[in-house]
C-alpha cells in the first residue's frame, strides 16, 4: 500500500447526501481541498480524521489501514477554523493535552510544551486564557499542540477563515516553516485561491460528494489565469 | 430611533407600573412593619421561630444537594447521547413538572411513595415495613427533588449542548478518556453554572409552600411560609406571622443577593452549522451506565405523573366536572388566571418598553438610568417578598375595612400577577429586544411609527411570545395554592383550593380526579406556550 493517505472506494451516506471518495493524497506534500459549500470537503476531512466512519471502502494512512480506528489512534493532528482551544483552560494546559490527555506531565514534558509555544512565538503565554488572545495567537497555540503531537499528517479545516489578510499571510508562512521542518503531510480545506497559490502543492477539487479533479498547483491556477470577460462574466 | 412621543409614552407606562408595584408591595410591607412591632420583635427571637428557620434552611439545602447531585449524571448521560430514539420525549418529560401545579405533583408522589403507594406496596410485599415515608422531611425532599431534578437537568444539559462541537472532536482526536473529558471539558463548563442552578433551586425550596403544606406540617417539618399560613389561618396570631414574614424576607433577600454575585452561565456558542459528534461513551460499560441513569430519572419523574393519570381516571370525572362546586371553582380560577395573566403581560410589556425607551437615548441622565434599574428590579420584587407575605400584609390591611372575603378574588389575582411578572418579563424581554434590534432602524428609516408600526411590524412577530407569556402566567395562576390558601372560603373556591379541601376531607378519589383535571389544564397551557420552541426542545 502506498504512503500518504488512501481512500479506497470509500462510501458514506449522511441522510440527504451521498459521498464517494476514491483518491490518493501524496505523503510529504501540502494538499488543498477546494470546492463549493456542501460539496463534501469537511466530510472528506472527517473521514480521514476518524470523526466519520465509512459504510464501505477502506482508509489507509501512512501505509496502515485506519478504517475502523478511533481518531486518537490515527497518525493525524487536526486544527479547526474555531474552538481549537478549550476556553476555560489556560494555554499551557491546552497545548499540553497534546502530549498527555490526562495531564500527567514530567518536567521534560513541561519543557517540550514551553518549547512548542516558543516555536510559534507564544513564549510566556502559557498562563494566559484563550479569551485574552487574538485570533492569530489562538491558532498559533493550536499549531503548537499539533507540533507537539508530532503526527505525520496535519489536517486543517479552514484554519485561517476567521483571520484578517495580514494574519493569513503570517499563518501561511508558519505552516510552510513547520512543513519544511517536519516534512509531514498537510491536508487543508480552503476557499481562498491566493492561499492555494501560496502554500499548496496539489489541489483536490470536491464536487457533489466526489473528487472531481486532482491536479498540481500550476494546472489548477492556470485555469484561473485568463482575464474575466466583462460581458459574459465567465472565465 | 424612537420618536419623542413614543419615548415619553414608553417611559410613562413604565413609571405607572413601577408606582403600582411599589404601592402594592409597599403597602403590604409597611403594614407588617407597623403592626404591633413590639410583640412581633419578641416573637422573632423565640425558640419556635428559630427552629422553623433552621428546618426551612435544612430542607432547602438538602433538596438542593440531592437535586443537583442527581441531575449532573443525568445531564451528562443525555449530552453524551445526542441522538437516540425517545430522547426528545425524555426532554419533554423533564419539562412537565415545571408546568405541573405543586399540589398535583404532591398527589402523584403520594400515589407512588405514600402508605398505600405503588412503591411502598412493592417494598412491603418484599418484606419491608413502611420503608419510605412520604411525610415529614423525607417526603419534602422527595417532592422537591421530583420538581427540581428535571429543572436542573434541563439547565445543565443546555450548558453542555452549548459547548462548541469542536470540543468533542478535539477530545476524541487527543485520545481523552471519560475521566479526562469530565475533568477538562464537562466539569469546567458545569462548574460555572452549578452555583447559580443550586441557588435557584435553594430559593424555590426555601419558599416552597404547597408541598410542605401537604407533605410536611407539624412543628418538626414546617417551613417559614407554611408557619406564616398556620399562624394566620389556624391560630390567628398576627405578631407571629409578622415575625416569620420578616425572617422569610431576610432569607429570600440574602439568597437573591448571593445568586446575583454568582458568575453568569458561559456565553460560549455552538459553532454554526457543525453537527455535534460524540465519539466518547461508546463502550458497553458507558452505554449501560448512561442507560441506567436515564432510566432511573425517567422512572422517578414519570411514575408520579402516571400515578396522577391512573388515579384520576378511576374517579367519576363526569360527575366531578358537572358538579356545581367544580363549575364554581373552574370559573373563579379561569377569571383569576386570565386577569392575572393580562395584568402580568401588560406590566411586563410596559417595563420592557420603558427600558428600551431609556436605552434609546444616546446618553441617559442619572435619573433615567436609575429608573431603568428600578424597572429591572421591579419584576423580581415578588421573589424577595413572596406571595404568602403579600397576602399576609394585605390581609391585615383589608381587615380594617371589614370583610376581607369581599376583596379576596381581586387580591389573589394581583398576587398571582406579581408571581407571574418575573416569568413574563423573562419570556418577553429577549423577544422584544431581538425584534427591536432587527427592525428599529428600518422602521425609523421608512417612517413607520405608531399604530401602523404595531400592526405591520410588531404584532406579527410578537404575537407568539406574548401568547407564550400569557399561557405561562395563566398556568402559574391556575395551579397556585399559596395566595388562595389565606383567602380561600366557601365564597372563594379555586381549582387548587377545591383539590386541597377535597383531599383534607379524605375524599381521596375525588381529589385524584380533580387533580388530574387541574394538571391537564396547566400542562396543556405550558405545552401550548412552548410548542414550536426549538430551544426548549433541544434544552
Automatic annotation (TrEMBL), chain A:
<keyword id="KW-0472">Membrane</keyword>
<feature type="domain" description="ABC transporter">
    <location>
        <begin position="1"/>
        <end position="233"/>
    </location>
</feature>
<keyword id="KW-0813">Transport</keyword>
<dbReference type="GO" id="GO:0016887">
    <property type="term" value="F:ATP hydrolysis activity"/>
</dbReference>
<keyword id="KW-1003">Cell membrane</keyword>
<keyword id="KW-0067">ATP-binding</keyword>
<dbReference type="GO" id="GO:0005524">
    <property type="term" value="F:ATP binding"/>
</dbReference>
<keyword id="KW-1278">Translocase</keyword>
<protein>
    <submittedName>
        <fullName>Thiamine transport system ATP-binding protein</fullName>
    </submittedName>
</protein>
<dbReference type="InterPro" id="IPR027417">
    <property type="entry name" value="P-loop_NTPase"/>
</dbReference>
<comment type="similarity">
    <text>Belongs to the ABC transporter superfamily.</text>
</comment>
<keyword id="KW-0547">Nucleotide-binding</keyword>
<dbReference type="InterPro" id="IPR003593">
    <property type="entry name" value="AAA+_ATPase"/>
</dbReference>
<dbReference type="Pfam" id="PF00005">
    <property type="entry name" value="ABC_tran"/>
</dbReference>
<dbReference type="InterPro" id="IPR017871">
    <property type="entry name" value="ABC_transporter-like_CS"/>
</dbReference>
<dbReference type="InterPro" id="IPR003439">
    <property type="entry name" value="ABC_transporter-like_ATP-bd"/>
</dbReference>
<dbReference type="InterPro" id="IPR050093">
    <property type="entry name" value="ABC_SmlMolc_Importer"/>
</dbReference>
<keyword id="KW-0997">Cell inner membrane</keyword>
From TrEMBL, chain B:
<comment type="subunit">
    <text>The complex is composed of two ATP-binding proteins (ThiQ), two transmembrane proteins (ThiP) and a solute-binding protein (ThiB).</text>
</comment>
<feature type="transmembrane region" description="Helical">
    <location>
        <begin position="241"/>
        <end position="266"/>
    </location>
</feature>
<comment type="similarity">
    <text>Belongs to the binding-protein-dependent transport system permease family.</text>
</comment>
<keyword id="KW-0813">Transport</keyword>
<dbReference type="GO" id="GO:0015888">
    <property type="term" value="P:thiamine transport"/>
</dbReference>
<feature type="transmembrane region" description="Helical">
    <location>
        <begin position="407"/>
        <end position="428"/>
    </location>
</feature>
<feature type="transmembrane region" description="Helical">
    <location>
        <begin position="513"/>
        <end position="531"/>
    </location>
</feature>
<dbReference type="GO" id="GO:0005886">
    <property type="term" value="C:plasma membrane"/>
</dbReference>
<keyword id="KW-0997">Cell inner membrane</keyword>
<dbReference type="InterPro" id="IPR005947">
    <property type="entry name" value="ThiP_ABC_transpt"/>
</dbReference>
<feature type="transmembrane region" description="Helical">
    <location>
        <begin position="134"/>
        <end position="157"/>
    </location>
</feature>
<feature type="domain" description="ABC transmembrane type-1">
    <location>
        <begin position="330"/>
        <end position="529"/>
    </location>
</feature>
<feature type="transmembrane region" description="Helical">
    <location>
        <begin position="90"/>
        <end position="114"/>
    </location>
</feature>
<feature type="transmembrane region" description="Helical">
    <location>
        <begin position="193"/>
        <end position="221"/>
    </location>
</feature>
<protein>
    <recommendedName>
        <fullName>Thiamine transport system permease protein ThiP</fullName>
    </recommendedName>
</protein>
<keyword id="KW-0472">Membrane</keyword>
<feature type="transmembrane region" description="Helical">
    <location>
        <begin position="466"/>
        <end position="488"/>
    </location>
</feature>
<feature type="transmembrane region" description="Helical">
    <location>
        <begin position="366"/>
        <end position="395"/>
    </location>
</feature>
<dbReference type="GO" id="GO:0022857">
    <property type="term" value="F:transmembrane transporter activity"/>
</dbReference>
<feature type="domain" description="ABC transmembrane type-1">
    <location>
        <begin position="53"/>
        <end position="260"/>
    </location>
</feature>
<dbReference type="Pfam" id="PF00528">
    <property type="entry name" value="BPD_transp_1"/>
</dbReference>
<keyword id="KW-1133">Transmembrane helix</keyword>
Amino acid at each position: 500500500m502506498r504512503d500518504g493517505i488512501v481512500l479506497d472506494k470509500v462510501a458514506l451516506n449522511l441522510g440527504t447526501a451521498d459521498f464517494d471518495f476514491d483518491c490518493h493524497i501524496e505523503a510529504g506534500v501540502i494538499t488543498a481541498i477546494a470546492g463549493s459549500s456542501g460539496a463534501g470537503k469537511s466530510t472528506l476531512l472527517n473521514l480521514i480524521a476518524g470523526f466519520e466512519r465509512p459504510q464501505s471502502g477502506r482508509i489507509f494512512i501512512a501505509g496502515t489501514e485506519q478504517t475502523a480506528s478511533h481518531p486518537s489512534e490515527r497518525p493525524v493532528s487536526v486544527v479547526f477554523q474555531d474552538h481549537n482551544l478549550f476556553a476555560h483552560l489556560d494555554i499551557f494546559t491546552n497545548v499540553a493535552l497534546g502530549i498527555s490527555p490526562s495531564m500527567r506531565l514530567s518536567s521534560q514534558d513541561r519543557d517540550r510544551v514551553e518549547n512548542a509555544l516558543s516555536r510559534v512565538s507564544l513564549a510566556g503565554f502559557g498562563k494566559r486564557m484563550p479569551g485574552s488572545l487574538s485570533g492569530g495567537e489562538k491558532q498559533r497555540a493550536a499549531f503548537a499542540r499539533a507540533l507537539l503531537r508530532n503526527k505525520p499528517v496535519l489536517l486543517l479545516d479552514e484554519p485561517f477563515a476567521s483571520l484578517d489578510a495580514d494574519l493569513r499571510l503570517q499563518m501561511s508562512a508558519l505552516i510552510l516553516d513547520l512543513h519544511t521542518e517536519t516534512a509531514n503531510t498537510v491536508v487543508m480545506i480552503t476557499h481562498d485561491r491566493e492561499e492555494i497559490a501560496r502554500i499548496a502543492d496539489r489541489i483536490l477539487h470536491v464536487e457533489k460528494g466526489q473528487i472531481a479533479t486532482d491536479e498540481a498547483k500550476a494546472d489548477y491556477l492556470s485555469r484561473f489565469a485568463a482575464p474575466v470577460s466583462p460581458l459574459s462574466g465567465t472565465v | 430611533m424612537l420618536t419623542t412621543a413614543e419615548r415619553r409614552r414608553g417611559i410613562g407606562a413604565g413609571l405607572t407600573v413601577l408606582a403600582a408595584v411599589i404601592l402594592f408591595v409597599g403597602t403590604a410591607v409597611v403594614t407588617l412593619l407597623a403592626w404591633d412591632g413590639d410583640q412581633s420583635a419578641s416573637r422573632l427571637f423565640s425558640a419556635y421561630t428559630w427552629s422553623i428557620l433552621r428546618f426551612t434552611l435544612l430542607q432547602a439545602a438538602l433538596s438542593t444537594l440531592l437535586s443537583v447531585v442527581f441531575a449532573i449524571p443525568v445531564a451528562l448521560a443525555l449530552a453524551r447521547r445526542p441522538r437516540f430514539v425517545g430522547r426528545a420525549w425524555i426532554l419533554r418529560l423533564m419539562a412537565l413538572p415545571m408546568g405541573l401545579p405543586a399540589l398535583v405533583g404532591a398527589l402523584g408522589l403520594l400515589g407512588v411513595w405514600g402508605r398505600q403507594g405503588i412503591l411502598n406496596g412493592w417494598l412491603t410485599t418484599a418484606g419491608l415495613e413502611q420503608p419510605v415515608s412520604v411525610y415529614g422531611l423525607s417526603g419534602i425532599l422527595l417532592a422537591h427533588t421530583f420538581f427540581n431534578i428535571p429543572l436542573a437537568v434541563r439547565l445543565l444539559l443546555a450548558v453542555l449542548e452549548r459547548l462548541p462541537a469542536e470540543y468533542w472532536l478535539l477530545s476524541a482526536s487527543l485520545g481523552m478518556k471519560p475521566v479526562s473529558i469530565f475533568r477538562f471539558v464537562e466539569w469546567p463548563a458545569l462548574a460555572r453554572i452549578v452555583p447559580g442552578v443550586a441557588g435557584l433551586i435553594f430559593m424555590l425550596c426555601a419558599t416552597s409552600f404547597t408541598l410542605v403544606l401537604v407533605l410536611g406540617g407539624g412543628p418538626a417539618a414546617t417551613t417559614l411560609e407554611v408557619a406564616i399560613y398556620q399562624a394566620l389561618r389556624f391560630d390567628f396570631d398576627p405578631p407571629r406571622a409578622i415575625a416569620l414574614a420578616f425572617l422569610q424576607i431576610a432569607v429570600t433577600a440574602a439568597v437573591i443577593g448571593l445568586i446575583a454575585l454568582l458568575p453568569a452561565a458561559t456565553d460560549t456558542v455552538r459553532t454554526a452549522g457543525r453537527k455535534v459528534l460524540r465519539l466518547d461513551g461508546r463502550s458497553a460499560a458507558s452505554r449501560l451506565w448512561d442507560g441506567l441513569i436515564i432510566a432511573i430519572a425517567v422512572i422517578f419523574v414519570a411514575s408520579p405523573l402516571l400515578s396522577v393519570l391512573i388515579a384520576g381516571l378511576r374517579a367519576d370525572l363526569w360527575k366531578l366536572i358537572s358538579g356545581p362546586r367544580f363549575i364554581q371553582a373552574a370559573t373563579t380560577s379561569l377569571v383569576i388566571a386570565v386577569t392575572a395573566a393580562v395584568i402580568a403581560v401588560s406590566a411586563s410589556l410596559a417595563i420592557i418598553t420603558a427600558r428600551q425607551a431609556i436605552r434609546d437615548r444616546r446618553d441617559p441622565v442619572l435619573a433615567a438610568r436609575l429608573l431603568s434599574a428600578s424597572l429591572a428590579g421591579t419584576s423580581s420584587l415578588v421573589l424577595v417578598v413572596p406571595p404568602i407575605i403579600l397576602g399576609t400584609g394585605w390581609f391585615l390591611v383589608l381587615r380594617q375595612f371589614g370583610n376581607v372575603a369581599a376583596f379576596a378574588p381581586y387580591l389573589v389575582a394581583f398576587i398571582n400577577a406579581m408571581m407571574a411578572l418575573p416569568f413574563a418579563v423573562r419570556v418577553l424581554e429577549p423577544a422584544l429586544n431581538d425584534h427591536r434590534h432587527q427592525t428599529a432602524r428600518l422602521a425609523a428609516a421608512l417612517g413607520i411609527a405608531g399604530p401602523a408600526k404595531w400592526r405591520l411590524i410588531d404584532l406579527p412577530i410578537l404575537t407568539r411570545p406574548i401568547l407564550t407569556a400569557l399561557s405561562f402566567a395563566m398556568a402559574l395562576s391556575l395551579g397556585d395554592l399559596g395566595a388562595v390558601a389565606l383567602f380561600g372560603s366557601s365564597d372563594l373556591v379555586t381549582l387548587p383550593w377545591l383539590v386541597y379541601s377535597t383531599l383534607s376531607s379524605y375524599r381521596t378519589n375525588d381529589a385524584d380526579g380533580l387533580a388530574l383535571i387541574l394538571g391537564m389544564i396547566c400542562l396543556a397551557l405550558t405545552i401550548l406556550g412552548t410548542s414550536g420552541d426549538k430551544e426548549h426542545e433541544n434544552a
